[in-house]
Amino acid sequence: MGRVEGKVALVTGAGSGLGAADCRRLAEEGAKVIVSDVNLGAAQTVAREIGDAAFALEHDVSSEESWKAAFAEVERAFGGLHILVNNAGIVVVADPEETTLEQFRKVQAVMSEGVFLGCKYGIPLMARSGGGSIINMSSTASHLGYPPFFAYSAAKGAVRSLTKSVAIHCQQKGYRIRCNSVHPGSIETPMVQNAMGRPGQEQEVPEGVLPPGSIGHPSDVANLVLYLASDESRFVTGAEFLIDNGLTITPAG
């Protein structure tokens, strides 16, 4: 216990799925957690489940003004920020020919521009707080070709790249801020349920080592996020962490 004791964390898209799991795990280990989501009701539900260590915040990551307001509120209420998890995401199922420009821009606004804005405005606050850890949620879609998730894959590729530039920028400025990206495969979340055509139908994930082709549990990702958020990962920055049960290295056959 206490691996992130005394730290303040903001997690976007935390009203469900991976973001909610991240909030729970960080709070279990001592962090004060801002549960950020465009759906305030969902954020409030997660915050209530966690208890006194969690606070709900209505936050549209595609809006520059919403980011400014979110960080101003965090600084006012908590005095600083040590952990930022850029997790919010959406999926449009459409291949390169079917994807409209409006759809493409909407997906980029949330997952590419949203991560950019989080880093841009989060860095100064975290620097004033003495440093910390930025964790950007990417995907195996940044490494593989997924035509049905074209806009999503493009956004996650941008996250993969910008993470490295943010990491080196913070090093060069002497900010004591690390920045890494996490690349999950299929994890049992509402987003994956919808993408797989079973909305609201949760699939049980067994304990222990999982066989090939399995779906992971949100806690698998949350445990990695906890490591990257903690001082245990002090020598880790600019790295990309595949958490996919070997998917991206499995030979075709």
Question: What does this protein structure show overall?
Answer:
By secondary structure, the protein is an alpha/beta fold. The protein has one domain (8-199, 211-249): 3-Layer(aba) Sandwich (Rossmann fold). Helix content is 42%, strand content 15%. Strands 3-2-1-4-5-6-7 form a seven-stranded parallel beta sheet, with helices on both faces. The model has no long low-confidence stretch (mean pLDDT 94).
Features of this protein?
253 residues, alpha/beta, Rossmann fold, seven-stranded parallel β-sheet, 8 helices
CATH level-4 homologous superfamily: NAD(P)-binding Rossmann-like Domain
Percentage of β-strand residues: 5-15%
Sheet with most strands: strand arrangement: 3-2-1-4-5-6-7
CATH class wording: Alpha Beta
CATH architecture designation: 3-Layer(aba) Sandwich
For the largest beta-sheet, the strand count, sense and barrel status come to: 7 strands, parallel
- Total separate domains: 1
